[in-house]
Amino acid sequence: MNKALRRPVIAGNWKMNQTPAEAKALIEQMKPLVADADCDVVLCVPYVDLQAAMEAAEGSNIRIGAENCHWAQKGAFTGEVSAEMLKAMGVPYVIIGHSERRQYFGETDETVQKRVRAALDAGLTVILCVGEYLQQREQGITEEVVRLQTKIALGGVSAEELKRIIIAYEPVWAIGTGKTATAEQANEVNHAIRVCVGELYGKEAADALVVQYGGSMNAGNAKELLAQPDVDGGLIGGASLKAADFSVIVGAAS
Ligand code: 13P
Predict the structure, then answer these.
(1) How far is the CA of 235 from the centre of ligand 1 (A)?
(2) Which distant-in-sequence residues (6+ apart) come within 8 Å of 192 by Cβ?
(3) How far is the CA of 43 from the centre of ligand 1 (A)?
(4) What is the pLDDT of residues 92-113, one digit of tens each?
(5) Atom of ligand 1 nearest to the CA of 129
(6) Domains in the chain, ordered, with CATH?
(7) Phi, psi (5° rounding) for residue 155?
(8) Helices of type H across the chain
(9) Paired strand residues for 236
(10) Which residue's CA is the closest to the ligand 1 atom numbered 2?
(11) 206 lines ligand 1 (CB under 6 A)
(12) Is the pLDDT of residue 81 over 70?
């Protein structure tokens, strides 16, 4: 499985951080630092920051994404935002199935599948998150968990649509904890995801699939993680809120 076939994607996930003014300032800081990146650079930001972020990033190599979207085009879903609305704004990326949505907001594999469907129908590129809890890792069922999450999320996704899917492997125990998976652990699960996608869509599709690692990736450990044959980028939380750190990670992927 040839890593050279894939262009790495470094994506920030700002989570519930940054006001629109702060978003603008941070992107202005980042722009010159990542201008020479030889990878795709994406920042996924809170809904209220999208407009300011898109304006700040205009003309640069930074692309903007949202952190979630609803599965319906519109309707009585107070507080939700549809993929169609993101499309109308010109937002190209959306994260779906982040473990914080699964953990705190009742997201299930089934709702993840519905959101993926809506995002693809709206023409967006999806960063689909999968990952196991510590207890599941200790039980030795990491691969089973991640394979099932992947298969359910991709239910109904065509081979053509798969080209607009990035999968982010994020072990829940490594998120925001400072505990990173070892490079070997990250590569092992990323590889398992690629094998799973290969079973569903064939080798060519699996070879082309970008599989990121996420979970306490930072300026210090990015190089080793990104050097792994099945790690094609990162989904970065905390370190994406610091321009210098984020640009080091982008540099490590380039
Ligand atoms: P941290 O990089 O802060 O651990 O967050 C990872 C993450 O959840 C990205 O989606």
Answers:
(1) 7
(2) 143, 146, 147
(3) 13
(4) 999 999 999 999 999 999 999 9
(5) 10
(6) 3-253 (3.20.20.70)
(7) -55, 120
(8) 20-34, 50-57, 83-89, 99-104, 109-121, 134-139, 142-153, 159-162, 183-201, 203-208, 222-226, 243-253
(9) 12
(10) 237
(11) no
(12) yes
Q: What is the residue-averaged pLDDT of the chain?
A: 97
Measured distance CA(51)–CA(29) in Å, rounded: 17
Q: How far is CA 45 from CA 65, 149, 189, 192, 240, in A?
A: 6, 24, 26, 29, 10
**Which residues are identified as catalytic?**
98, 170
Average pLDDT over residues 48-59: 98
User: What token pair was written down for 116?
Assistant: 């993926």
For 142, the token pair is: 């990491």
Q: Which amino acid is at 6?
A: R
Reading the block at residue 77, the tokens are 């879903």
Q: How far apart are CA 95 and CA 150, in angstroms?
A: 14
Phi/psi at 35 (5° precision): -60, -30
pLDDT per residue over 30-40, tens digit each?
A: 999 999 999 99
pLDDT at 179: 84
Q: Is 236 in the pocket of ligand 1 (CB under 6 A)?
A: yes
Residue 76 Cα to ligand 1 midpoint, Å, equals 31
Instruction: Using the atom order of ligand 1, give the atom closest to the CA of residue 217.
Output: 2
Per-residue confidence (pLDDT) for residue 1, from 0 to 100:
56
Query: Which residue has 């499309």 as its token pair?
Result: 87
- The residue whose C-alpha atom lies closest to atom 1 belonging to ligand 1 is 237
Q: What pLDDT, in 10s, does the model give residues 130-147?
A: 999 999 999 999 999 999
| Entry field: residues in the chain | 254
